[in-house]
C-alpha cells in the first residue's frame, strides 16, 4: 500500500503544469480554502438505503514547494449521508504558513461546504481483474464552496469547485480503497471583505485508504492533489471518518 501511495504522488508530481505569468492571487485563494488546503478523500462506502447517517470527519494536510512556501492545515467536519449514499457536509479548519514574508501566508481560519452525489454504484468493474466479486465501484459528482478569512493581502478568499470522484473498494472484512477526483476550481468574490475573481484551474486528487478499520464505521485514507497552475506545489495529507451506524 505504501508503494502504491508513493506511485500516486510521483504521478501527480510528474504531470505537466501550464506556465502562467498571471493568476498568483487566484492560486493563493485556492490554497487558502479547504479545496486547496485539505487532502482529497474517497467516496463514503454505501450503507443501508433505509437510513440516514451522521459522519464525523478529521483531516490534516500540508502543501510543499508552492508559490508561498510550506503550508499546513487541520480541519474537521460533520457530514450527513442521505439514505446511505450521497452526502452533504460542513468543514472548518485552520491553516498556518512558513514563508519568507509572513503577510503572504497569514494564519487564518477557513470554512467549507460540500455535496457529493452518488451517480452510479456498481459491482467489480475494473476490480474484477483481481478476482474480487465483492468489490464496489462508485462514480459521483461533487460541488464545493470554500471561505477563508484574511487570507490574501488582508482580504478574504472564496472559491467554488466541481469534481467527478471515482472510488473503488476491494475485499470484504477490511476494504482497500483507491480513488481519484478530477475537477475544476474557481476563485469568486466573497460576500464581504473580498476582491473580484480571477480565473479557473483544473486539479486532480488521488489516494488510497482502508475502510472498516478496527470497526465497521471507521475509515482512514491518504490523499495527494495537484492544482494545475505554476507554483502550486504538491498537497497531501490524511483523513479519517467515523460513520454513526444505527
Give the helices and strands, then pairings.
Blueprint: H1 2-14, H2 24-32, H3 34-37, E1 53-64, E2 70-81, E3 87-98, E4 108-122, E5 136-152, E6 155-163, E7 166-170, E8 175-188, E9 200-211, E10 218-227, E11 234-243
Antiparallel strand pairs: 1-2, 1-11, 2-3, 3-4, 4-5, 5-6, 5-7, 6-8, 7-8, 8-9, 9-10, 10-11
Task: Describe this protein's structure.
This protein is mainly beta and 246 residues long. The protein has one domain. Helices cover 11% and strands 52% of the residues. The chain is built from 3 helices and 11 strands. Strands 1, 2, 3, 4, 5, 6, 7, 8, 9, 10 and 11 form an 11-stranded antiparallel β-sheet that branches. A hairpin with a 6-residue loop joins strand 10 and strand 11. It is elongated and about 50 Å long. The two termini are 31 Å apart. The relative contact order is 0.23. Mean pLDDT is 84; it is low at 12-22.
Keywords:
246 residues; mainly beta; 11-stranded antiparallel beta sheet; 3 helices; 11 strands; 11% helix; elongated
Q: Which ranges are low-confidence, i.e. pLDDT below 50, for 5 or more consecutive residues?
A: 12-22
The helix/strand class is mainly beta
What is the total domain count? Answer: 1
Helix/strand order, N-terminal first: HHHEEEEEEEEEEE
Give the end-to-end Cα distance, rounded to a whole number of Å.
31 Å
Quickly count the helices. 3
A few lines on this structure:
The protein has 246 residues and is mostly beta strands. Helices cover 11% and strands 52% of the residues. Strand 5 (136-152) and strand 6 form a beta hairpin.
Amino acid at each position: 500500500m505504501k508503494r502504491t501511495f508513493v506511485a500516486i504522488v510521483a504521478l501527480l508530481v510528474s504531470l505537466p503544469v501550464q506556465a502562467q505569468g498571471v493568476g498568483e492571487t487566484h492560486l493563493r485563494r485556492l490554497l487558502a480554502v479547504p479545496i486547496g488546503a485539505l487532502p482529497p478523500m474517497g467516496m463514503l462506502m454505501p450503507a443501508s438505503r433505509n437510513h440516514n447517517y451522521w459522519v464525523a470527519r478529521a483531516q490534516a494536510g500540508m502543501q510543499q514547494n508552492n508559490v508561498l512556501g510550506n503550508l499546513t492545515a487541520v480541519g474537521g467536519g460533520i457530514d450527513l449521508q442521505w439514505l446511505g449514499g450521497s452526502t452533504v457536509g460542513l468543514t472548518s479548519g485552520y491553516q498556518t504558513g512558513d514563508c519568507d514574508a509572513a503577510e503572504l501566508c497569514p494564519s487564518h481560519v477557513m470554512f467549507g461546504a460540500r455535496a457529493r452525489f452518488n451517480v452510479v454504484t456498481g459491482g467489480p468493474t475494473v476490480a474484477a481483474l483481481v478476482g474480487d466479486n465483492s468489490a464496489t465501484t462508485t462514480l459521483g459528482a461533487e460541488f464545493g464552496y470554500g471561505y477563508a478569512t484574511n487570507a490574501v493581502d488582508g482580504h478574504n478568499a472564496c472559491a467554488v469547485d466541481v469534481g467527478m470522484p471515482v472510488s473503488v473498494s476491494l475485499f470484504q472484512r477490511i476494504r482497500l480503497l483507491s480513488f481519484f477526483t478530477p475537477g475544476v476550481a474557481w476563485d469568486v468574490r466573497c460576500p464581504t471583505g473580498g476582491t473580484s475573481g480571477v480565473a479557473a484551474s483544473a486539479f486532480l486528487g488521488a489516494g488510497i485508504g482502508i475502510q472498516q478499520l478496527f470497526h465497521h464505521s471507521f475509515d482512514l485514507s491518504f490523499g495527494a492533489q495537484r492544482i494545475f497552475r505554476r507554483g502550486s506545489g504538491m498537497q497531501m495529507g490524511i483523513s479519517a471518518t467515523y460513520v454513526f451506524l444505527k
